[in-house]
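Issue 218. Parser rejects a valid record. Input:
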Amino acid sequence: MTTLSRIRIGSAPDSWGVWFPEDPGQVPWSRFLDEVADSGYEWIELGPYGYLPSDPAVLRAETQRRGLKVSAGTVFTGLHHGPSVWDKTWAHVADNAALAQAMGAEHLVVIPSFWRDDKTGEVLEDRTLTPDQWRQLTLQTERLAYEVRERYGLRVVVHPHADTHIDDEKNVTRFLDATDSDLVSLCLDTGHYAYCGGDNVKLIETYGERIGYLHLKQVDPAVLAEVRAQEMPFGPAVARGVMCEPPTGVPAIEPVLAAAQKLGVDLFAIVEQDMYPCPPDKPLPIARRTRSYLRSCGA
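Output the parser choked on:
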């Protein structure tokens, strides 16, 4: 068994069915912190801003007494709309980045906005960007990455995501080829990339210098086939169980981690098994099994 010495394993509120700052069906933040620590994880992400305490002093005390550290914050953006959305975007980003910085994190995960509503499936805009929208997406992402780095010392890692404009191999590589590697890296979510038909190992081997962060996730191929046949939006697909517990799905995690280890850089690999909505007692046993499985892979 190869020891994955450059890979730092963590988990996130997402693996506890948390998608929103407030939702009566979600587990309370204190229970999430208790259970993620109990599962054997050392690193966590902040999740949706406002779910965990946003006062750094409070959050620092709560994480430290459980032996937890923060790897990143997460924001959703619609930067292909250009400068008109900058002020609104920055207000959202600044809150997240300030908390992430205060917690000692080094990364900010940036997720593009959805082209269709992830609950209702309502089409919000064309699923294909115009050449000018692509230009705005790359320019504004570089601007965001520069400002986040200069003001908060964080590295922006852009997260390809189902039902967004950065999703499959064609769009991911187009985005990478059009952005400055000194500013913009990728948060490769193995589940989302597989969901959209991409080959994770190939991407790591081809664009290794752009891989700045990993989300570990698997898709159930049988459910994915149904989702694609029905053109199901991402939210209902998750409720159907499209994202599954490793190692039961694809892509195989071990080759992905081995390819990442070969890059020779320190990388976070944060477990994210989308489970929204889910019963409150479901996440903990899965989290324990997943951590044990990753240890068996050398991580």
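Fixed in the parser; the record now loads. The longest strand covers residues 69-77.
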